[in-house]
Amino acid sequence: MNSERLECPPGQTGAISRVLVVDDSNLQLRIVSAMLKRWGFEVDVATSGPDALQLCLHRPPDLVLSDWMMPGMTGLEFCRRFRALDRDGYGYFILLTSKSDKADVAQGLDAGADDFLTKPVNANELRARINAGERIVSMERQLTETNRQVSDALRELREIHEAIENDLRQARTIQQSLVPERVRIFGTSRVSLLLQPCGHVGGDLVGMFSPAPDQLGLYSIDVSGHGITSAMVTARVAGYLSSTFPEQNVALDRRNNLPFALREPRDTARRLNRRFAADPGVEEYLTMAYIAADLSTGVMRLVQAGHSPPILLRRNGPVQFIGDGGLPIGLVDDVTYDQHSFRMERGDLLLLYSDGFTEAVMKDGSMLGEDGLAQLLCDSAQVGTGPDLLGDMFWRLTTEMADPDRLGDDVSAALLEYDVLR
Known about the structure:
By secondary structure, the protein is of the alpha+beta class. The chain has helices at residues 26-38, 49-58, 75-83, 102-111, 123-177, 227-240, 265-277, 355-358, 369-381, 386-400, and strands at 18-22, 42-46, 63-67, 92-97, 115-118, 183-186, 189-196, 204-212, 215-223, 252-253, 261-262, 286-294, 299-305, 311-313, 319-321, 340-343, 349-353, 411-417. Strand 14 and strand 15 (319-321) form a beta hairpin. The protein starts with 17 loop residues before the first strand and ends in a 5-residue tail after the last strand. Residues 1-11 have low confidence and may be disordered.
């Protein structure tokens, strides 16, 4: 056994630099080794299969030239054992043989040989076979490197995706905190809220605030678009309509150190619109239905800024859609809003909702629509109250949807049950 290192000749890619020659004939070893060294290859030699395997473990070759007929372990068995070795890259294997029968060639290929060379070895043919093997080894290494790069990229993408998932889960928790109360009692009336984003986070927001025992602000908001950007806008709006910090709430007014009072809904919408117009970096807009309620008299004042019309379900059964439209918030600068007033009686229900309800696609391909939502409200009002009523509505909706496991849009609602707790 010996080893020598020379530079690769011109025209070689360098994919094959170390060659292992295995033959029980010392003469054959010297002849083949001499040719390989003249061509610039680093050559190791072995006179038996077991010795060759030991060399492969300590000095993995790029190319093996092995005699087929050897005592003890044949070249065929050595090839099988060589293919079973754990190695980083591909090793090209050429069997040196006098066999030419097709069955013998098939047997050699099955054992893992890449090519065959007839003895005695011709220098030009050997060089051509090595060049062919070098192309194979070079492509295999390029493919391995490409696969490594792809694997690294996929690993980085998985890490990025996991980080995004963690951020979105945290964002969902934060967004849920914007609606800390899902049900609240106001004297003999009750407000319940439903918020179901279609993804991790959404652009819908429902909420309530009360500056005095008989005063209630109730709103349903739908920000344009979906996802993180819309969720950030809803967080911003939640601050503008905060129930915790009344001094920051644009719907509340305080004059001459008197207690906070509800502004007129049209003034609230106009103030919100100015806030959005003042920030040129925000391209999103929102629709809103906002109610300023006097619970002592049942008088409701509504502004409907491009939002779905609230549903009023009277105690004795009739259903009304309240409001007549209006421009969304943040769409046009310096806009005025109309205001609508109506009175609720004992036992009446008022539902503010997003278009995630009405635009839900049913099994027959149609959308639920306003009439379908009104029927949904009537049906659920027969079996539940408060948050159970809203939960039943959402259950009925998803049961009849074409794809109940996938919401096409955020679904939200705010329900006022007026004077029902006597």
